[in-house]
Amino acid sequence: MGSTFQRSFLKGIIWEFISFLLTLVLVFIVYGDFPTSLKFTLGLTIIKVPLFFFHERIWKKVRWGKLKDKK
Known about the structure:
Layout: H1 5-31, H2 34-61
Helix pairs in contact: 1-2
């Protein structure tokens, strides 16, 4: 069972939204400055989204741990 480009992309966007909010809150707690927290979180997001996408696409091709479809 595979997944489409769109599915991987949407999974990445949804996960990153959750991660974005969590990171923003945690960085704000540490620094106490919203503009700094937002800049840090946006920078991290720019790096993480493409990495997550390619990570998903690579794992889609890895056969280890997959069960064969019974047809």
